[in-house]
Amino acid sequence: MHETLAYLPQIVPAYIAYLVAVASPGPAIMAIIATSMTHGRKAGMTLSLGIFGGSLTWATAAAAGLATLLQTYAMALEILKIFGGLYLLYLAYKAFRAVRASGDLPVAAEGPKTPGFKSLILRGYGIHVTNPKAIFAWLAIIALGMPQGAPASVAVLIIAVCGTTGFIVFMGYAVLFSTPHALRIYRNARRWIEGAMAGFYCFAGIKLLTSNI
Q: Measured between alpha carbons, how far is 82 from 192 in angstroms, rounded to an integer?
């Protein structure tokens, strides 16, 4: 343990980099906000759990060196990028449909209008795991906090600390945007919010499809 703690001067900057990245609005955070405001706290937290799973997948891959292997196969990254971009455009389409829909704020108690547990988990996981940029972010964090020759326990510590922080941040967004005040805001400005979500997902999807990985 003492050997691991000796790498704290490298681990701290990596943690700060992760904290800034995970708290910044992106497709995952925007999905949590939209789901929490639309379907309530339980749905938002369930989606967050799926996103957290996707984050841990890339974290484990980066620590295991699979990210470097993935970089070698450009075609695999291109396919992943296409899937990710198309998925974001699909979310934009769903948000656009919500803009056109009439009626009051859908809530979890209404049953069929709220996606099921499995659907939300897979949606959250899909948002994160289909974004190839996420693995490069984790690769940079692992490389920053784990210099050459560092023991594997350093990578475990980085993933544990960053993973715990990510879980708290994701769940925090879900709780914050499912409060009665947030739901009142959504009820009064539903079309504008859904329209903003549709525009954001569309922009993110096109940017991912046209970006150079």
A: 28
- For residue range 12-35, what is the model confidence (pLDDT) as tens digits? 888 888 887 787 777 888 889 889
Q: How many domains does the chain have?
A: 1
Q: Name residues whose C-beta falls within 8 Å of residue 208's C-beta, 6 or more positions apart in sequence.
A: 81, 84, 85, 88, 131, 133
Residue 2 within a domain: no
pLDDT digits (tens, 9 = 90+) for 80-111: 678 777 877 877 887 777 666 644 444 443 43
Q: Are 151 and 2 in contact (CB under 8 A)?
A: no
Q: Is residue 9 part of a domain?
A: no
Burial degree of 110 (CB within 10 A; 0-12, 13-18, 19+) = exposed
Given a contact cutoff of 8 angstroms between Cβ atoms, the answer to whether 51 and 120 are in contact is no
Domain that holds residue 152: 31-210
